[in-house]
Every structure is written in C-alpha cells, then in structure tokens.
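[step 3/7] inverse_fold.run input=structure_tokens len=150
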C-alpha cells in the first residue's frame, strides 16, 4: 500500500514468510548482502558498523545512497538516509514478528519527504515502489526460504 500526501510518500508491504523469526531477521539485517539477491541493488557495502552505502537502480538511473542502520535483534531494522539524492528524508524499517504457527510476519515500510526535489520525484518514486515493493518482499521471501533449507 502506498500514498502521497503533499511532499511525502509512504509505502508499506506486509507478508507472511514460512520461516522462523531469527532467519527472517538475519536476512533483512544483512544489508551489505542485498546485492546478492536484490536485482535493483548493484552494490552494498558497510562503511562502518552502522553506515551502509548502496548503488541502486531506479529505472534508468543509478542512485548512490548511504543509510544509517539500527538494529533491534529479532524485532526490527531501521534505516535513514545520511547521504544521497536531494531529499529531506528517506527512511524505512523492516519489522519481524513471530506467528503462532512458527512462521514470521514481516513488514517493510518506507517514508520519503521530497522537499525541494518536489512532487515529480515523489510520483516517480511512487510508481517505482508500486512496481517494486511487492517484488522486493518476494525476493526476501525467496532468499529466506533458500537460507532456511541450508
């Protein structure tokens, strides 16, 4: 689900993954490994304990972005942009929660505040996230299922 209000864009996608919380969390927390299984992530490297730099495909563009990542083991991973495109804010979170049947409920959320980049960027981002959001969560699901079988 996504929405645009003024100069702000919000996206949220939730899925149930048939794997334990620890495996789902470790996959989402391994931000420096995203380039191994997310087709839109060209490179991902940890520059320090909490700063990850990625080059991401956004349509025909290549976007260099650095995020500060914070971890709450087996519960959530939060990220906020510290360097990248001219946005007031780019932030998001992965939230994982166990289900009674042993599977894991995972939610991915993103918030973009455009500021001077304006509505054109938000509309571009919303179209991109609309197409890619569910595919992103599905790519994580496939990677998690692959890891849980090894």
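[step 3/7] decode complete -> sequence:
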């Amino acid at each position: 689900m996504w929405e645009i209000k003024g100069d702000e864009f919000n996206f949220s996608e939730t899925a149930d993954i048939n794997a334990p919380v620890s495996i789902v969390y470790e996959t989402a927390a391994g931000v420096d490994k995203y380039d191994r299984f997310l087709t839109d992530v060209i490179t991902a490297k940890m520059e320090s304990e909490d700063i990850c730099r990625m080059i991401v495909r956004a349509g025909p563009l290549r976007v260099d972005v650095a995020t500060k990542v914070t971890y709450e083991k087996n519960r959530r991973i939060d990220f906020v942009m510290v360097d990248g495109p001219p946005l007031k804010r780019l932030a998001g979170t992965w939230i994982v929660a166990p289900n009674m049947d042993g599977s894991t409920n995972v939610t991915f959320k993103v918030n973009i505040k455009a500021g001077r980049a304006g509505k054109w960027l938000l509309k571009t981002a919303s179209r991109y996230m609309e197409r890619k959001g569910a595919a992103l969560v599905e790519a994580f699901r496939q990677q998690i299922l692959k890891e849980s079988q090894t």
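[step 4/7] annotate
The radius of gyration is 15 Å.
The chain has one domain: 2-148.
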